[in-house]
Amino acid sequence: MSRDRLPTEPPPYRPCVGAMLVNRAGLVFVGRRLRSSGPEHVDDTHDWQMPQGGIDPGEDPYHAVLRELYEETNVRSTALLAEAEEWFSYDLPPDIIRRAWKGRYRGQTQRWFALRFTGPDDEIDILRPAEGRHRPEFGAWRWAALDELPELIIPFKREVYRNVVAAFRGVVVPDE
Questions:
Q1: What is the pLDDT of residues 45-63, one digit of tens each?
Q2: Domain 13-168 grouped into CATH 3.90.79.10
Q3: What distance in Å separates the CA atoms of residue 38 and residue 41, rounded to the nearest whole number?
Q4: What is the pTM of this model?
């Protein structure tokens, strides 16, 4: 336990970012998580999600989302559409909290960005992300409709996805 936390205080949230990558048709990238990609991914029924990950110490959230997107998908060809006005948080279920991140965090607080994907689909390489310098987190990927997203994600993250969909509903449109 952290020395600066009282025994009765819950652990803090892990600061993270999330990327809603939108193609020219107005569809959103989702990847199917590999079972080995993290202890919080325990549900084989709801294993699709958008790219997300931690913010390094001193790192700006926008730079973190670009880094995480590259590390998970190999994508660099993006244009910023919008940034969510607020941070969205979720709590891990109690049976997972001790295994995930060594119990240091109770969940995540995430800053989300909507990004237009400006490259060709073959730029996406989930099996050799970051040009092979990062281990894969996804075993498959596809484009999904905006309203489909909350039902694809593991239930304890569902409210965050509802908030993300609401935040970006006006910017996730086909490219004209």
A1: 778 999 999 999 999 999 9
A2: yes
A3: 6
A4: 0.89
